[in-house]
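R.M. (postdoc): so does anyone remember the format we settled on? I'll just put the structure tokens first.
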């Protein structure tokens, strides 16, 4: 397993210390894909050369971990992150990078559309 993935496990575990100790496996395939995205983004963040790149990676990790917690509130994130990191192969990393990048791009476009719709509402007058 690539060394950056193991480093990412350490980075992610800091964000996961408060996670519950029992899991409820709702959709293992979807959880696996989200975990792969979080791991790839954690590695990108660890290797980032600019604060903007690091911040973008942190936002992406938060997005995918949020999806996981939303789908499986009782997920044992430290155990699942570690298991997924150990299972990932180089081809998985490449595929996840492509897939996750496309997902984040689509989510970014949707977020901009929501922002534009909110901006069009105009400011609310003070009370």
């Amino acid at each position: 397993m690539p060394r950056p993935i193991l480093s990412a496990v350490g980075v992610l575990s800091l964000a996961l210390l408060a996670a519950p100790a029992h899991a409820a496996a709702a959709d293992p395939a979807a959880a696996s894909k989200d975990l792969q995205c979080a791991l790839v983004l954690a590695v990108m963040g660890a290797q980032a050369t600019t604060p903007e790149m690091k911040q973008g990676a942190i936002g992406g990790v938060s997005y995918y971990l949020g999806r996981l917690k939303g789908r499986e509130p009782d997920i044992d994130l430290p155990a699942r992150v570690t298991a997924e990191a150990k299972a990932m192969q180089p081809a998985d990393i490449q595929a996840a990078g492509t897939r996750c990048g496309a997902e984040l791009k689509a989510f970014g476009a949707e977020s901009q559309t929501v922002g534009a719709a909110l901006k069009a509402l105009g400011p609310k007058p003070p009370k």
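R.M.: ...and that's the designed sequence above, right after the tokens. Also worth knowing: The chain has one domain: 3-120. Residues 35 and 41 are 10 Å apart (CA to CA).
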